[in-house]
Amino acid sequence: MLSRSKAKRKANFEKTRTLLTEKIRESMVSVLPIIAIVAVLCLFLVPMQPTLLLTFLVGALMIVVGLGLFSLGAERSMTIIGSKIGTALTKIGKLPVILLVAFVLGVAVTVAEPDLQVLADTVPNIDKTVLLAAVGIGVGFFMVVCMLRILYGINLRWVLVACYIAVFVLAAFTDRDFLGIAFDSGGVTTGPMTVPFILALGVGISHVRSDRRAEADSFGLVSLCSIGPILSVLLLGFFSDGGGGAAEITRVSFDSTTGIGTAFLRALPVYMKEMAMAMLPIVAIFLIFQVFVFKMSARNFGKIAVGILYTYVGLVLFLAGVNVGFSSLGAELGAALATSEMEWLLIPLAALLGWFIISAEPAVAVLEKQIEDVSAGAIPGKAIKVSLSVAIALAMGLAMLRVVTGISILWFLVPGYAIALGLSFFVPDIYTAIAFDSGGVASGPMTATFMLQFMMGVSIARGGNVLTDAFGIVAMVAMMPLLSIQMVGVIYQRKARRAAQELESYGDCDIIELWEDAA
Fold this sequence. Notes:
The chain is mainly alpha-helical. Helices cover 82% and strands 0% of the residues.
């Protein structure tokens, strides 16, 4: 009996090690394009201090390990907690309880989102706690909207149309300095912490309905929850006095390798404390449900507790790597390029980084499989990946164009969202839901970390307004997949209709051959 138990523990350990290795490999693939391009720029085109490049590489290593631990932890804790709470709420069956818990969970899981933490540290004119609270409340409120939509089967298209009308009406009157920050806040909340939790909670809640549309209505949660922060930060702009420090490039210089190590060691306790406070609400909610509702065995409880620990350690490493290693080099590299003879490289370089960032994003593979399943294989994953790569390359290029020219972000977002919402009337509802959810896939960790700092450096060096020019990059990246995924859906529908017409025309034609041609 003892040897069997020991063998089982060993098998579980090997399985965990294999999964962690795979997660670290995925995060490495995501970060590697940035490392390679930055290394080439620093070594051959734009001279940088050697210690600054070394700090960047150490930070990149911490980000890779941190993202790997975080991904494994979120998969083993947040996703399971979200699914269990969603299922438990349906059994309770009391609407006020469901809505209250959804609101609290939305706030709790959002403040621990790593991308949001990075953005809150970067914004110069809003207190970090105020921004986190505003964004958390926005997500919590729209979690309530999502639950009502799922429970009552409200069409997503009309909810999106109404919400974005409200967004752009507010945007027309709020402080211009808050526009980019508001839309970026919506993009960063749909990150690796929030998305698995929200999706799992939505699937659990959808089980209360037995009709065919219930599963389809569980899509769209991410898209709706990203609207809440936009509205809340836009409203914050009406009450802010516009105070706060101006954005500056933080000049970092280390005289030795021990100075680099000391900088990282000093940062770790700071982020350990911040992340402990950020994750405390979601852990407390889980413990309350465990005591009164779940009553899981010690073994299952322990697995989730270990997953939470992985998540915590991963977040600490990620934030330390970003803020000590990535931020300073990203800003200085952008500034150096903007003031050099290679200024013309800025827009094509941004587009190139966008292409590689989305191509290496692990979550894209999940989206590809999701669309292939929905379309019964008629839309190949390669088509999705290419459309997303083109979309994000354009988004990054346009975002840099904004930095260089100072064009308002509304000139891009208003027509972009108008076209996206218009397309929703010509494609099946499921494609609209997946398209709007896919913005969370595109606006991954590298956009909120390195690329934002890179564009801030360019803006500061050129004497621009960082708040109106550099902020908004996440919003641009989150918007473009709405267009590309729905356009793929439109193309698929046209080919399907053409195949159906040919089938009617030829009657005895080989059906399989027709559908292969359509695909």
